[in-house]
Amino acid sequence: MLEFASSDAVRTTGDAPDVCLLNPETLLLIWDMPTRLWAVPKLETTEGKAISPQATLRLPLNGGGTRLLRLIRRPKDEPVSFLAEAGTLGRKDEITIDPEGDFEFANASMLLEDVTPSGRLSLMSALLGAWASMFRTRRSKSYTAFLNKLVSEIVDTPQRAKAVAKLSDQQILISAGLPVAFGDIEAVYIVSSFGFRRLAVPPHESSEGPQGKKQTYMIADRDGTENGAYLVVTGGRALAIRHLAATPVLPSLSRWWLARGKSDADLREYIIGAMARGDTKARKAALEFQLRCPLSSQRVTGGGGLPSGEVDLAVTTARGTLIGGWYRDPAEMIASIDILDSKGTAHPFGDGFYRYAGNVMDDDRTVSATGFVGFYRDIQSQVPILQPRSLMRLTSGSRHLMVPTAQPIDPAEARARILRAVPPQHLTDEIIENCLAPVIGDLQQKLLAAAKADRTIEFGEQLKEPAVSIVVPLYRVLDFLRAQVGAFACDPWISRYCEVIYVLDSPEQAEECEHLLRGLHLLYDMPMRLVVMTRNGGYARACNSGAEQARSDLIAMLNSDVIPYQIGWLELMASKMGGPQDVAAVGPKLLFEDGSLQHAGMYFARNERGQWLNHHFYKGLPDQFRDANVERSVPGITGACMLLHRGTFNDVGGFTEDYVIGDYEDSDLCLKIRKADFDIKYVPDASLYHFERKSISTHTDYMLGVATQYNAWLHASRWSDMLEDFHKNDVPQNRPQNRVSDKDDQGEAA
C-alpha cells in the first residue's frame, strides 16, 4: 500500500506518485508535472539521509510537461518514509512505502504515453544501460518481460533486421537499414524473451543504400535470437527499433560473401577484426574467410612521369602493422604512404616510416626506385590480417589504393618475409627498433607457442643417474651424426657415465633420423634419446627442450657439427666445474677443419658502425698459439660446446628464446650467468673440431636476410651496459692486445 501524507511544515499540494514494480525488488515512482523540470529534484529519507541506490529520469511530454521517474530499492522489513522535492514547483511531499504493499508491475503503454521521441530515447538508454547495472536487473524475468513489452510499444510495426551469415558456432552477422540522418550510433542492444544485452562489437555502417538508408552490419551472439528478437539502436539524438525474425539455417560467412557478388573491403576487415577478438574457433574462421575470399591485389601503375608503387610486405599482429614495398616518383608527386584501418580511415605513419634507395624490375629492365618500410602501432589484430591496405597520397590530393597479395599465415613464413624486407646494407638499429622489432617479436612468440617437444624415442636402456647429460640440437644436417656418435662411443667415460639426448628441430626428418640413430645404437650399443619437436622453433627452444629431459646436474650443450677427436675431453671439463671460484660454465678449445683456432673463449667489441658483436679469441691463428693454450676466465663461451651446472642454467632461465633462428643465445646465456656472479672458464686441454655453421647455412632466411643484425641489436639493447663495462675494465681478464677478428662471425647457433 502507498501512504501519502502532508507535513504541517511544508506545502504538500499535488497528486501522489504512482508506484509500480520493475521487478519484485525494484520500485518505480512516477510523477507527472505540468511544466518542464530543469533541475533534478531531491529524494531523501525524512532524517535527511541519502537513498542509495536511486536513479532519476525526466521525460519531456508533448504537452510541455515532465514525467518524473525515480527508481529505488523496495523496502524489505519495515515501512520507509521519504521526502520528495519537486524542484521548481517548490513542493516537498512525504511518502511512506510499506514493504508489504501490493504493487502492480509497470505498464509500458502508460509509461510511454505522450512522451516525446527524445524522452523515449532517454528511457530506453536508462533501462538498458545504467539502471540495469545499478539495480542488477539483467537476470530478472519480469524486468526482461517489461522491456520486451516496452520495445514493442514504441514502434507498432518495426522494420526488419536480418541475420545473413554464420560467423562461428556462437556468432552471427546481422544486417539492418538505418536512415542516413540517424547520425552516429552509440550502442546496439539485443532484447529478446531470454534477456537483453549490449553488443560488444560496435556496428559497421556501409555506404548509403537505396531509399536514403545506410546498411548497418552487427555481430551478435546467436544465443537468444533463435526465436526472434528486437534490435534497439541508440544514437546521440535518435532511437531505432528493428525486429529480427527467427534465425534460419544460415550460410557460412564465405558462402554469403561470395554470393553477394560485390566487394566491400571495409566490411571485410570489420568482420575479420571482430572475429579476431573471439575464441579460438572464431580466430580460425577469420583466417579461413581471408583465404577463401581474398581481395584483389592492387598496385599503382605509372608511366609518362606518373608515380608507381607496390606493397609486397604487410603483416598485422597484436603489436601493430608493418608494411614494406617500393615506389617510383620521377616528378616528385607523392606526399605520403598511409595505412588504412578497418573503417577505411587513412593514417600517416609519421616517425615509423623509413625509405632507402633500391632497384626494381620494370619491363624486363632494372630501374631505380625507393624502398620503404612503415610500422603503425595502433592497427592491431590477434589474427593475421593477410591483406592490410595502404594508400599512396599525392600532393594533388588524389589517393591511390595499394593492396598486397595475401600474406602467409604461418608465423615463420611471415617472419621470413620481414627478414628480407630491407637489404642488409640499408638496415639500421633505428629501423630495427622502431619498425621491425615489434612485429618480429610477436611472430616469434606465436612460433614458439607452436614449437614444443612432441615425442621422445629411446634407444637402449637409459642411465638413471648420469654424470653429464649431452644435449645436441639437430636441424636438417644429419651428416655428422655417424662421426659424433662414434666419438662418443669410443670415449669410455662418456659411454659409461653420460646420457646423450638429440633434439630434432626439423620434424619432417623424424623417420630418417630415427632410422639413423637406431642403426648407430645397434652398432655401438650406446643408449640415446631422440626428442622430436612439433615444428622448427630455433636453436634456443631446441636446447631448452633437451635440457628439460636431462637427468644429470651437469648439461653439455653440443652442436651437431662438433666432433671430438680425443677421449677424456668431457671428463676434464666436468672436473673444472664449481670450486671456490663458483665456475658455472666451461668451454673447450674448438678448431677449424684445417686445425686452426675457431674458438678460445668469447669477448665483445664494437664494429666500425658502433654495433656490439661477438668475437672469438685468436680466431684463425695456429692451434699451438701460446695465449690460446692458457686456462683462464673469459667473458663468454660459444654454445657450440659448453658445459653448465643445471641449477644455474635453470635459475637464469636457460637460453633466451626470442632471438631469431639461432644467434647470440649463447652469449646472452653467458651474460646472464655472469650477472648472477658466477664464473665462466675456457679449458684449452679439452679440444674438439667444429665444422662451423653447417646447420644454419641451410636456413636461407638467416643467410640472405637480416636475422643476424636483428639478433645483434636485440643482444646489445639488453646488455650494452655490461658489455661496455667489460670493454672498459678489461673484465674478466686476458683480453688480447692484438685480436684477430672476423667481421662475419657474430654469434653461434646450431
UniProtKB/TrEMBL annotation:
Region entry Disordered, spans: 728-750
Top-level lineage group: Bacteria
One Gene Ontology molecular-function label: transferase activity
SUPFAM superfamilies for this protein: Nucleotide-diphospho-sugar transferases
Glycosyltransferase 2-like domain segment(s): 469-651
Gene3D superfamilies assigned to the protein according to its UniProt record, in alphabetical order: Spore Coat Polysaccharide Biosynthesis Protein SpsA, Chain A (3.90.550.10)
Biased composition regions of type Basic and acidic residues, renumbered to the chain: 740-750
InterPro entries, sorted: Glyco_trans_2-like, Nucleotide-diphossugar_trans
Zinc among keywords: no
Alphabetized UniProt keyword annotations: Transferase
Protein name in the entry: Glycosyl transferase
Organism of this sequence: Thalassospira xiamenensis
Lineage: Bacteria, Pseudomonadati, Pseudomonadota, Alphaproteobacteria, Rhodospirillales
